[in-house]
Each structure stands twice: as C-alpha cells, then as structure tokens.
Design brief:
Chain lengths: ~170, ~525
C-alpha cells in the first residue's frame, strides 16, 4: 500500500490529453459518448455487448473496430463492450462480403446468441460485396445471409464514425 | 560466380533451355518437362532461395497449354529467376518438386485446386481455400472456361486433419470464429499434457476469389481492387501492383514519387509494428504498454490521414507515382508528429525491456530455428528474427541509393527476437522518413503519368512490413489483366507458426501468433 502511494507521488500524473492535428478532439468523443452512454443505460439496462465476426474482410475494418477501444476513443467507458462469446452478446457485428466458407460459421454464431438480438454490418464489402460482388466465392453482403438492422458504410469507417452511426441507430431502437 | 556462368551451368546438359524474356531484374527460362525439377533444384541450391512464388496460368486458348512458373530470388545478382514449363492441356499433370524443395508444397496444392493440374508425387493435395464442405470436387475456378452459374454449387466432402494418436493425447480445435476481433482461421492443437505436439492450421475462410476478379479488369479498376485485399498492408499491395504495371508499360516514376512511396511504406510499417508490439504486451496481460502502443498507432494513423486523406493510405497510388504530393506544411507536420511519436515509442520500449516478468514470457517462447525457417521458405520479418537476412529494401535499394538502409537481424528466432526486430525497424523507419523528407523538394502536385497499356508481363514486388509482397501480372493486347498472381509473405509464414509453437503450452499460442502477426485475408485471397 505504502509503495503504491510512494509510486504515485514520485511519478505524478501520467494521464494526458492527446492533441494532434488530424486526431478527433477529446471533447467531441466525450459529448457523443455521454449521449451514447445514457441511451445504452436506459435501453439496454447499462451495457451493450457486441460480438464481432469477420467473414472475409481485408482487416482494415477490424483495425478500426479495435481502435474504438483504444484510449483515445475508449468506447468501453460508454457501455459498449466487445465480448468473446456470442452467448454474451446483444448484437452481432459482421464485416466482409461473406465468403462461402464462412456462411455456416456466421449462421451458427447468430444462432448461438440469445434473443433479443440485432445484426450490424460494417464496411462497404458487408453491404453488397462491393469490389467482391462478382466473385464466385462470396454471398455478396451480410443481408443475403442474416437480417441486418444497421449498416455502417466506409472503407473502412473511422472509429468516430462507427460511434456516430451506433448512436443514431440506438436512438431509433425501442 | 558471375551471372553468365550460372546461366551456362543451368544450360549444361539441357540444351533446350531458352531465355524467353529478360529484364534488369527478371529472367525467364523456358525448360522442358523433364528438366523442370532439375533446374528448380539447381537454382534453389545455387541461389540459396526458397520458392518465392510458384503458379500456373491458363494459355489454352492461344497455345493449348498451361504454363507453370516457379520463381526464385537471387540476392547476389539482384534478379528474379522464373523457371517456365508448358503442360499440354490433354495431360494435366506435372512432376512435383515439393519432395526436394519443401517450400513448393503449398503452392502445388494451390495449383491443383485452382487449375486441376495434378502434382504427381506430392503426398498432400488437400485443398487450401476451396473448402470441401461448400465447393464441389473438380471445379477449377482459375481455368479460363470456368463459368459462374447460379445453380446450387455445394460440396459434400470433408477435410481430413492429421490424426495424432497415442496415450493421453488430446485435441483442442479452435476457430474459425475467435474470441478476439481478428480474422477467421481454424487451429487444431494436439497436446500431450501441457506442451503442444502438433498444430495444424486450416485457412481459406476469407477466400473471396481475388485472383479471378482481377482477370478482365482495366488497370484503374484493378488498382482499386488491389487496395482492398489486405487492409493493414493496403499501400504495399497497391505499390507492388503499380510497380508491376509500370514495368510492363515502361513508365518510370520520377525520383520524388518513388521516394514518397518508400516513405509511405515506412509509415505503414510503423503503424503495424507498434500495433504488434502492443499486441504482444496485451497477450501476456501487460495492458499499460499495450494502451500506450494503441495511442502511438492512432497518432500514426492520424498522420496518414493528414498526408493522404486516408488512415490506411488508400486511394493514393497511381500508375507513374502518387496522386498527391507533400507540400511544406505536410512536411513540417510530419516532422513534428514524428518527434512526439518517437518520444512515446522510447517510453514504450523502456517499459517493455525493463520488465522482468514480461521478458520471462517472451524470451525463448515460440522458437523458430534457422534450419526450419530455411526449409519452409520463411520470409520477411519472421525470417530476419531467425537469422535469415533477407530484406528486399536491401536487395533492391531505391534508385541512386538515396538513403542508407540498415537491415535488422536477430538469431534466436523466439518471440523476443521478433519483438526486437520490430523495435529496431520502427526506429529505423523513423530515421528513414526523416531522411526521405529531406529528399523531397519539388512540389509538382501529382505524378499521374499518361500511358498506353500494352501486352506483357512483369513482377512487382515490395518489402511490406510483414515481408515481400509479390504481384505477377500479365496484360493482354487490350491492356486488360489476363492473369494476376499475388503472393503474400503470410502464405509462407503460416507454416512457420505451426512449427514455432511446438513444445510451448497452449496459453502461449496467442503470444506466438501475435509475434508473427500474419494476415488471413492476404493468405486466403
């Protein structure tokens, strides 16, 4: 205990405000995040749990979803968490044009989620296959496999945009 | 030995060998079917090169044959050697070279599943990407007469994993849907007690038929597609694509543009390396440096966005150079940001390297021995950590040696070695970007070149942050893409991972996996 006190006195404050050209302002994240937080608190009784499935995305969408949880955005503090199992999830977040190989796995993941549940597709490929539309090996978008309730466009959508879309969608949810 | 004597040696006893095409950095040797294996083996031994890429193309319309290309890299002559063989269409089989050169094995499986050419003598011809459960047998998508019909195509087969049997051996299947936010892959561990005794990796889950999609596309369309294959190396991919096209049509990017490209490649390397360093820390439960790394990555992505308008450097490359130039404001912003990024990074390095419990986890975990790495044909970052000093930036330096580049090298091949390579390369990238930014003087605006597409073929290559990304492209007489073969370093390196984890415990697998950080999408195409 003493050593922790000593440590914190010697080191001082280590948090800081990130300000750099091109970075989202902390106030913007804060404002939109608090709105999101109160919505989630009311509608989902405290938190929204999301399970992510990659069905053939290039990896950029994953990178941006991971960035949502970094210290700059830290979407977790607003009540959104990415969980390890579909059993714990309220929402399924799907990226990629749905490769044939992933169709069964995607359906099974959706089937493993408890009701009520909803599906979010993320990235241009997930909408209609985009550049992979004419391929012999894709289903051409998530909506051909599962009912999609929200689509977040972009290649890839930036973290701030993901949060914005999520907020706009949750406003409509009853 | 000089280059002429090597060619002589290859020709000795095989008079029919002809050089069908030659460029400054590529040479194509046309060989008979009987000589193919011998010539490949000779090049493999003389050049100390694994099979860098190995693919087929369907030329039945013009000449009633399939062509097979096996490619080796000579670091000494700074040349790519293509061994080319014709396979008549009525006899769709060839003698496997995988027994002599193991690194050819996966490529032969790929050729078999995509073209239906039988590698006679290869003991393993299971399909890699077209999963037996969803794709019928004897349906070869890269053949030119393949037609996509909307009729129900389903497979009824099953994939056979290797069976590891014995008292107390148990299997742990993982995937394709994982606990984290990552791509899909299936890992099957066999463990006896704690240590892993075998790991079989089944990939192909993100297969989207990319190589087929390229066929028939115009150059701008194809460039757009090339950026969407592997998101974390989007700029490497589009650069390799552009370099191949530029070689075919004979456009040389001006020095400024190629320096700028090299600089953006370093930025891409930095953002991914720091993400991996954070990932390694996170996988041993060390969250503070992991979050610091996430901040650094976010800052680099912000720099990317400021410079190019895209966080992943998309929509920047064009044939002949880049769509946008750096003005002096951009340059100043870049240098200021670099300074703060460098400061954060040295703090990150300090935290990691001074933590005893962290070192205890990464030191001697997941060792990939040099011999194994050589046999498997491991390339790029993972190879450099195992003592193989291959780096395309060293072999093919920028024109006129604009900057001195120092290649990283470690010997031990464990997670710590791969971490050290990343730490070193990150700092080297910072230094390189500073030097590059001094070389960029003119403010021309954009480097778009006017060009007329013409028939031909060439190899475009780039040392991406994972290792060499190769694009072999053939254009037809209308300037449309006839064949595009993409080789990602992950295609070689996934096998390395399955060897590196042997003897480690399953809980250390995420750590080993992250230290390689291989792509699913670039591997599965």
């Amino acid at each position: 205990m003493l050593s922790i006190f000593k440590n914190s006195i010697i080191k001082g404050r280590v948090t800081r405000v990130q300000k750099q050209e091109g970075l989202i302002l902390p106030e913007d994240v804060e404002n939109i995040g608090n709105e999101l937080k109160s919505l989630i608190h009311n509608k989902f009784s405290r938190s929204l749990h999301i399970r992510e499935v990659d069905t053939g995305s290039c990896g950029a969408c994953e990178s941006e979803i991971i960035a949502c949880s970094n210290p700059i955005y830290d979407i977790q503090r607003f009540g959104v968490d990415f969980v390890a199992s579909p059993r714990h999830a309220d929402a399924l977040l799907v990226t990629g044009p749905v490769s044939k190989n992933m169709t069964i796995a995607l359906k099974k993941t959706y089937g493993a989620m408890p009701n009520p549940k909803f599906v979010i597709s993320l990235g241009n490929c997930a909408a209609d296959g985009w550049v992979f539309k004419d391929s012999y090996y894709t289903e051409g978008g998530v909506s051909n496999v599962l009912p999609v309730h929200l689509h977040i466009p972009g290649c890839p959508p930036e973290p701030f945009l993901i949060i914005k879309y999520l907020l706009a969608f949750l406003k409509q949810v009853k | 030995m000089d280059y002429g004597r090597l060619i002589e040696e290859i020709r000795k006893g095989h008079d029919s060998i002809e050089i069908i095409a030659e460029r400054e950095d590529e040479v194509y040797l046309d060989v008979d079917r009987e000589d193919f294996g011998k010539v490949c083996l000779l090049l493999h031994k003389r050049l100390h090169s694994p099979v860098m890429t190995y693919f087929a193309s369907d030329e039945r319309k013009d000449s009633k044959v399939f062509l097979l290309y096996c490619v080796f890299l000579s670091t000494e002559y700074k040349k790519w050697f293509f061994v080319v063989m014709k396979i008549p269409e009525d006899e769709p089989r060839f003698n496997s070279i995988a027994k002599e050169i193991y690194s050819a094995s996966l490529f032969e499986r790929e050729i078999k599943e995509m073209y239906g050419l039988e590698p006679v003598g290869n003991p393993d011809v299971r399909r890699l990407r077209l999963h037996d459960e969803v794709w019928p047998a004897e349906c070869y998508p890269l053949r030119k007469d393949f037609k996509l019909t909307k009729t129900d195509r389903t497979g009824k087969g099953e994939f056979h994993f290797k069976k590891i049997e014995g008292e107390g051996v148990f299997e742990v299947p993982v995937g394709p849907v994982h606990a984290g936010i990552i791509g899909p892959g299936h890992f099957r561990f066999s463990a006896a007690g704690e240590p892993i005794i075998n790991l079989e990796i089944r990939l192909g889950w993100t297969h989207r038929g990319v190589e087929k999609l390229f066929e028939g596309k115009s150059i701008p369309e194809a460039l757009n597609l090339s950026e969407c294959i592997c998101g974390d190396a989007a700029f490497s991919y589009s650069t390799a694509f552009c370099k191949a096209i530029e070689k075919i049509i004979g456009v040389n990017p001006v020095q400024e543009a190629s320096v700028l490209r090299a600089m953006l490649l370093e930025l891409e390397r930095m953002s991914n390396h720091v993400a991996d360093i954070g990932g390694i820390a996170l996988d041993v439960g060390f969250t503070f440096p992991a979050n610091l790394a996430a901040i650094i990555k976010e800052n680099i992505l912000a720099v990317n966005k400021n410079l190019t308008g895209s966080r992943y450097l998309k929509n920047m490359n064009c044939i002949g150079g880049l769509k946008k130039d750096l003005n002096s404001d951009d340059k100043a912003m870049l240098l200021v940001s670099l300074k703060s990024i460098e400061k954060d990074f040295s703090e990150l390095e300090g935290i990691l390297m001074s933590s005893i419990s962290f070192m205890d986890r990464v030191d001697t975990a997941g060792i990939l021995r040099k011999k194994t790495a050589e046999d498997l044909g491991i390339v790029g970052l993972a190879a450099r950590a195992s003592g193989i000093p291959l780096d395309l930036r060293k072999v093919f330096p920028e024109k006129d040696d604009v900057v001195r580049f120092q290649a990283a090298k470690e010997e031990k091949g464990d997670v710590l070695a791969r971490l050290k390579i990343r730490l070193f390369e990150f700092k080297e990238s910072v230094r390189l970007i500073r030097e590059f930014s001094c070389k960029i003087k003119s403010e021309k605006g954009d480097y778009t070149a006017d060009f007329t597409p013409k028939e031909g073929f060439a190899l475009g290559y780039v040392e991406s942050w994972r290792g060499p990304v190769l694009f072999w492209i053939k254009l037809n007489s209308h300037g449309l893409i006839e064949r595009c073969k993409i080789t990602d370093p992950s295609f070689h390196n996934w096998q390395g991972l399955s060897f590196a984890v042997l003897g480690n415990i399953i809980p250390d697998f995420p750590l080993c996996n992250k230290s390689f950080d291989l792509t699913y999408s670039g591997n599965d195409l």
